Amino acid sequence: MLHFVLYISTDYKGGNSYWVNKEVWQYNGISSLPSDKYTEEVDVLELAIPFIDLDECGVFVETADKHIGKAYVGNRVRQEGNYQKSEKWTLLLAVAGSAAAERWQMMWLEGGTTGDKMIEFIELILNAIGPGTPARRRCFTMDNLSSHHNLQVAAMILTADHRIAFRAPYYPIDGPIEFVFNAVQTYLAINCHLVQNNGTSLRHWTMNGIANIRSFVPYFNNC
C-alpha cells in the first residue's frame, strides 16, 4: 500500500479534503495523534499527495445479434435498432481522488495513445491543477504503456513539482480508472438504443456517462 504524507487541519475550508475518522489515520500507518488535533467524531484530512489515475480505452458500438439483443420490457427483441459496427474511438481519461471529483478526457477517432497525445493530455491536466506545493502536490498513477513512459511526459510532471507512480495494468485495486471505465461501459449499455451509428452520438453519450459520476473517492479507497 502507498502511504500518504498527511497532516491535520481543523479549520481547513477549501482545496482537496476528505472527512474521515481516527481509524483512517491508524489504517494509513499513523498509530497515534495528539488528542487536541482532532475531534472524536470526524477530522478534516488533507492529502498532501492526492492521486490522479489515468488510462485509455477503446469505445465503439459493437455489432449486435438481434436474436439475443436488448429491448425494453414488452417490446420484441428483434426490432430495428442502431446495431451496426461504428468507428472505434480512443478515450484517454484521468480522474482525481479529490472531493472536487476532477476529471479530464480526450477522445479521438482511430489510433491509440501516442507520445504526442500523452504530452497534450498531461499539459491539459497541469494547466488545470497548477504547480505542486508541499500542501497540494499530486501523484499521477498509470500503467506501463510505452507512451506513459515518455521522457517528456515525466519531465513535465516532475518540473511542475508533482509525482509519478507506475502500477499494474487492468488492476482496479490500485487502478481506480478501471472502475470508471466499467461505470461508463454500463451507462453506454443501458443507453445503447439511443446511441446513433456515428461518432458525434457516441462521443455525446460517452461524455454523459463520465459526467454522471459525481465522486471518484470510493474508487481510491484501496490505493
Automatic annotation (TrEMBL):
A Pfam family matched in the record: DDE_3
Tc1-like transposase DDE domain boundaries: 54-188
Single GO molecular function: nucleic acid binding
Name the record gives this protein: Tc1-like transposase DDE domain-containing protein
Source lineage: Eukaryota, Sar, Stramenopiles, Ochrophyta, Bacillariophyta
